[in-house]
Amino acid sequence: MRFNSIGYMISEGFKSFFKQKKMTSASIIIMCATMFMFGIFYLIGENVNFAMSQLEGEQGIRVMIKDGATDSEIEKLKVDIQAIDGVSTVTFVSKSEALATVKSWISGSSDSEDLLDGYEEDNPFPASYFVTLTDLNKNSEVQEKIKALDNVSDLSTNNDVITKLATLARTIQIITLVLLLILVAISIFIIAYTIKLTVYARRREISIMKYVGATNGFIRGPFIVEGIIIGIVSALITLIIIGFAYNAVLTKMMSSAVMQSISISLYTFKALFARVLIVYLILGIGIGTLGSTISMNKYLKV
Amino acid sequence: MIEFRNVSKTYSTGSEVIHNANFKIEKGEFAFLIGASGSGKSTIIKLILKEENPTSGKIIINGKDTTNLKPSKIPYLRRSMGIVFQDFRLLPDRNVYENVAFAMHVVKATPRHIKRQVPMVLSQVGLADKAKKFPNELSGGEQQRVALARAIVNNPSMLIADEPTGNLDPNTAWDIMELLNEINLRGTTVLVATHAKDIVDRMNKRVIQIDGGNIIRDKKGGYDSEI
Ligand SMILES: Nc1ncnc2c1ncn2[C@@H]1O[C@H](COP(=O)(O)OP(=O)(O)OP(=O)(O)O)[C@@H](O)[C@H]1O
Ligand SMILES: [Mg+2]
Fold first, then answer.
1. HEC profile for B25-56?
2. Helix (H, G, I), strand (E, B), or coil: what is residue B122?
3. pTM score
4. Can you tell me the distance from the alpha carbon of A15 to that of A10, in angstroms, rounded to the nearest whole number?
5. ipTM of the assembly?
6. With contact defined as beta carbons under 8 Å apart, do B154 and B107 qualify?
7. Which residue from A1, A5, A216 is facing B72, i.e. has the nearest CB?
8. Rg (Cα) of chain B, in Å, rounded?
9. Roughly what angle, to the nearest 10 degrees, separates helices A159-201 and A21-55?
């Protein structure tokens, strides 16, 4: 296909995009609304995944060992833990290592160094085993079994949070997928309908084109371009709206006490921009092409 | 060249409209297709354009049997024919120049070629000074000239006209017919379906007469010459 005929199709596509103002705006509004809904869940999903990746390093159970335990008792505890079904690795963390870790956490805030200075003599942090699991689903089961063992003073874990996040992530994934399907269906329908109106408005032109020997591709080109333009415009409008909405919500959330108390950070829209742009453009262009093609196969017998 | 070999046509809804038609229009010929309303003239033209397919028989255009032509090849068949209708079929939102250039865009002509070719055919049909006018600013005769210019702008080997003078007064009709004759003298095969008795008589060309789907006459002469 020669360049000037592509140029012709694009300019014709733009012309009819602006001619059918009412229907075009209606379809853009509907597409924006559905893309916005989908976008909300897509963004939540991305953030849940982000939170999970932040917690992944902490996935495991910390088993605090009673201070009075002897070396052989500590060794026996390890063997017992390892024997539990679902346990993957068991790593020993000594009292001094625990202190060092805590020190490294609070280093950075000015006079905190000497805050823990005296503790070397009389270290209050217990020795522990860090236990990772082969399967997070066995979390509570494994915890019960460890609790029942001798010389265990306490357990601490983020696994509950991680499990809950994983369930949330799965739910959001399903919602996003369902919304995506609904979005695609509605948008294809509305674009097909808009293009049908354009085809109807230009039926005279189309019949003349057929008589002077235009190929089907040439006749369809401008309509497909029109569908794609509707898709891209909807994508860009939604991107701007959702960007502002997201930043507004993010600012509110970050200043809330709940978010400040947990050490999970969320994406800024800037970080997600490229991803959302690509997802929206693929959707817009795909739906535009599909909608107009379907419409023409149905209404434009060429 | 247009050839019908034992062509019959029955529309899906009704009885046979064309019955076993045989004729051959040679390259460079001028022929009229006449007959009463409903006799099947437009149907024959639709068969030539492959807008309709024959129920039986063969239609040969420029030496090629179009009976089993793939739908994707139909546009290329139509590029070998210029087509003119009674109702002009111009685009109301485009001026004369654009209406003619449109036919060239459609066959992907280069902008340079379009710029050269369109003014040439407009002066050939006597509309050089009306290029910027819109169809509703033109008389019927002028509109049909635009349609003619559009039909010949891609240099087709044949020109098919279905009642091209049906909406025009006798003088204007005659002007259009003279234009068709000029186009024919330049080597284009011309086939005109018409009711215009006086024009057919005056032109004294080959006449194919059809009645109730049968070709009842095919010879040179006037509208009512004996069969
Ligand atoms: N698409 C169609 N479906 C069914 N019947 C049709 C169709 N087109 C034409 N006919 C019928 O075929 C017959 C011939 O019609 P056609 O249009 O070829 O006649 P015509 O000679 O061009 O008439 P006119 O001089 O009025 O234009 C008519 O009886 C008409 O009703
Ligand atoms: Mg007719």
1. ECCCCEEEEECCCCCCHHHHHHHHHCCCCCCE
2. helix
3. 0.72
4. 9
5. 0.89
6. yes
7. A216
8. 17
9. 160
Q: In this structure, which residues have their CB less than 5 angstroms from ion ligand 2?
A: B 42
Of B62, B66, B147, B138, which is closest to residue B103 (Cα–Cα)?
B147
Q: Residues A227, A195: contact at Cβ < 8 Å?
A: yes
Cβ of B89 and A204 within 8 Å? yes
Amino acid sitting at position A41: F
Helix boundaries (H) for chain B: 41-49, 74-78, 96-106, 111-124, 140-152, 170-185, 197-203
CATH numbers and ranges of domains, chain A? 2-55+164-300 (no CATH), 60-157 (3.30.70.3040)
Chain B residue with CA closest to A213: the answer is B75
Q: Which of A4, A204, A215 sits opposite B75 (nearest CB)?
A: A215
What is the per-residue pLDDT across B170-210, written as a single tens digit (0 to 9) for each? 999 999 999 999 999 999 999 999 988 889 999 999 999 99
Strands ordered across the beta sheet of A152-157: A87-93, A128-133, A61-65, A152-157
CA of B54 to the centre of ligand 1 (A): 14
Residues A16 and A8: their CA atoms lie apart, in Å, by: 12
